[in-house]
Every structure is written in C-alpha cells, then in structure tokens.
Amino acid sequence: MEIKISSKHMELTPAIEDYAAKKIDKFHRFFDQIQQVEVVIDKAKNGYSLEIITNVVHHEPFVATSDHEDLYACIDQGIDRSIRQLKDHKSKLRDNKHHTSTGGKEA
Q1: Is it the case that residue 102 has pLDDT exceeding 80?
Q2: Minimal CA–CA distance to 65: which of 74, 57, 73?
C-alpha cells in the first residue's frame, strides 16, 4: 500500500505526517486490496479541510472529506469516514460473493 500525504496553504510537519501515516497504516485491517491512499490537507479560513482518496482493486476510488478547526480532529474524522467506506465495500463484496440463489422459491 502506497501512502502519499500532501498539504495546501500550510507547512506539513513531520509530526502531522507521522500521525496521518500511522492512522492510515490501520486500513489494511479493514480491507486488504488497497493500492494507494492519498491525503490532502488544506488550511482554510476557519480551520482545516482534509480529503482522503483511497484506490482499491476493481473499484472507483473512495473519497472521504472532513472539515474541523483542529487538525488532528480533522484527520481522525476523515480516517473514520474512510474506514466506514472500506467496511461497507467489503461487506458488499462478501454478501454478493456468497449469495446463493433459491431458484425463485422462498426458503
């Protein structure tokens, strides 16, 4: 899994970069077919905005956004939303893969 972290209108410190990378490393627990995760942190007037783009195999990229006054809370909120998207995608794949037809009859 490749991780890219970038920022707009602000300096990206090693502490912020390490914090985000440490959180993103946990993504493989929820879905193991992740190719790349790109994080874009932007400084806005009232706080920060975050965009996490997660590229997975055989699917369009998942995009999670968050806005918050505190940068670390913004990162946590975006990570939570990305994890939710990955969990939902995994459950859809598993449900479709193991779905058995009843042949039009109710069980």
Answers
A1: no
A2: 74
